[in-house]
């Protein structure tokens, strides 16, 4: 148990830092324990565009909308790395692009003639794009301003987890595999290339059937553009593969010719922490241990909604702990 701390949050990715900020804003003394710096997390490998994707929970839509409100607010300050961005989602080969659900702004069906070659249907809309390097730095700074601390140290073990603090919030992402033995969390590998921005200011996202592990997206982030992508289920390797990078560049340049010949500054690989259902609940054995992991390809999108839920659960846990 750590003196002078009310809540220990395990994990310094987007889930952990967002929860830590919410808890600190509510007056809790928060310590974040993490095996990695924020810039080395899966969260930092994300594109990132708002929209629940590869994530399962009956409340995912609601958490996404709650987060959207916060991202809209954050986009007023460019230093946060959040920007409301217009763009196009399109499908190939006669696959119908579904109309964007609640949350997307300025929604308009695309004239197929305006779509890149090979794409046959699409929608134009505006959603938040989040530059994760800047955004995680923003969250960490905000937490420190609120008196919270971040300690990057060796990994916490499963045996240590319940005893870390009066209240413990497990935001370990794929690391939950070690912290919760037997959990069904598993990776879906994603590759992302960072290139200089040749003058792109709208996003492009392919809507596809997830069948071949490949997709195409172009996400402008100021002076850089994030290009994707891949979805390799069950793949644990984080080693960049030049063949995968070439495929991403080719597909993105076909969708956006300004990218032809783009020089790759960085090849990021992240493992999306996927579960059949996000785990956001108090532990069955330890009421003071709250789990918040398994957000798949939508952890950024759901982050503020889930953090609100964690805050409510910590209130209940504190009550139980005091009575017990
Ligand atoms: C290529 C790619 C693109 C993506 N694009 C999007 C997108 O556009 N929009 C979107 O919403 N989402 C996107 N995602 C998904 C999103 O990145 C994840 O859902 C999200 O990052 C999960 O965040 P997290 O904080 O739960 O986990 P992580 O970011 O993995 O953080 C886990 C933290 O726990 C720590 N940890 C783990 N085990 C231990 C331990 N035993 N002891 C101490 N610390 C531990 C780690 O060090 C780390 O700090 C994308 C992912 C990838 C890979």
Features:
single chain; 324 residues; alpha/beta; FAD/NAD(P)-binding domain; 14-stranded mixed β-sheet; 14 strands; 26% helix; binds flavin-adenine dinucleotide
- Give the CA-CA distance, first to last residue: 17 Å
Strand elements, count? 14
Measured by DSSP, the beta-strand proportion falls in 25-35%
How confident is the prediction overall: mean pLDDT? 94
Shape: globular
**What's the CATH architecture?**
3-Layer(bba) Sandwich
User: How many separate structural domains?
Assistant: 1
Please compute the radius of gyration using only Cα atoms: 20 Å
Question: What small molecules are bound in this structure?
Answer: flavin-adenine dinucleotide
CATH top level is Alpha Beta
Quaternary arrangement of the chains shown?
single chain
List the helices and strands and how they pair.
Layout: E1 7-10, H1 14-25, E2 30-34, H2 60-74, E3 82-92, E4 105-109, E5 119-130, H3 132-145, E6 149-152, E7 167-170, H4 176-179, E8 186-196, E9 203-206, E10 214-221, E11 224-230, E12 232-233, H5 242-255, E13 264-282, E14 289-295, H6 299-323
Parallel strand pairs: 1-2, 1-7, 2-6, 3-9, 7-14
Antiparallel strand pairs: 3-5, 4-5, 8-11, 8-12, 8-13, 9-10, 10-11, 13-14
Helix pairs in contact: 1-3, 1-6, 2-6
Flavin-adenine dinucleotide binds at residues 10-16, 33-36, 41-43, 45-49, 155-156, 171-175, 178-179, 190, 192, 228-229, 270, 272-273, 293, 295-301.
């Amino acid at each position: 148990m750590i003196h002078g701390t009310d809540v220990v949050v395990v994990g310094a990715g987007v889930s952990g830092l967002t929860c830590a900020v919410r808890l600190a804003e509510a007056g809790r003394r928060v310590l974040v324990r993490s095996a990695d710096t924020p810039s080395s997390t899966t969260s930092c490998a994300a594109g990132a565009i708002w929209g629940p994707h590869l994530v399962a929970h009956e409340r995912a839509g609601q958490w996404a909308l709650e987060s959207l409100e916060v991202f809209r607010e954050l986009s007023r300050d460019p230093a946060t790395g959040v920007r409301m961005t217009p763009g196009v989602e399109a499908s190939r080969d006669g696959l119908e692009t579904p109309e964007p659900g609640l949350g997307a702004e300025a929604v308009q069906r695309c004239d197929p003639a305006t779509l890149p070659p090979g794409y046959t249907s699409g929608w134009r809309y505006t959603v938040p794009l989040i530059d994760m390097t800047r955004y995680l730095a923003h969250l960490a700074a905000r937490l420190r301003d609120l008196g919270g601390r971040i300690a990057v140290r060796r990994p916490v073990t499963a045996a240590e987890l319940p005893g870390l603090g009066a209240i413990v919030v497990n935001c370990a992402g794929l690391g939950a595999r070690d912290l919760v033995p037997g959990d069904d969390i598993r990776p879906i590998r994603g590759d992302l290339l960072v290139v200089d921005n040749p003058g792109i200011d709208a996003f492009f996202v392919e809507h596809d059937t997830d069948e071949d592990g490949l997709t195409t997206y172009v996400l402008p982030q100021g002076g850089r553009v994030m290009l994707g992508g891949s979805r390799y289920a069950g793949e644990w390797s984080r080693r960049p593969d030049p063949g995968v990078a070439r495929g991403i560049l080719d597909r993105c340049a076909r969708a956006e010719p300004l990218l032809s010949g783009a020089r790759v500054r960085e090849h990021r690989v992240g493992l999306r922490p996927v579960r059949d259902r996000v785990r956001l609940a108090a532990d069955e054995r330890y009421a003071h241990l709250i789990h918040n992991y398994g957000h798949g390809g939508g952890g950024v999108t759901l982050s503020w909604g889930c953090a609100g839920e964690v805050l409510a659960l910590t209130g209940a846990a504190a009550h139980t702990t005091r009575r017990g």
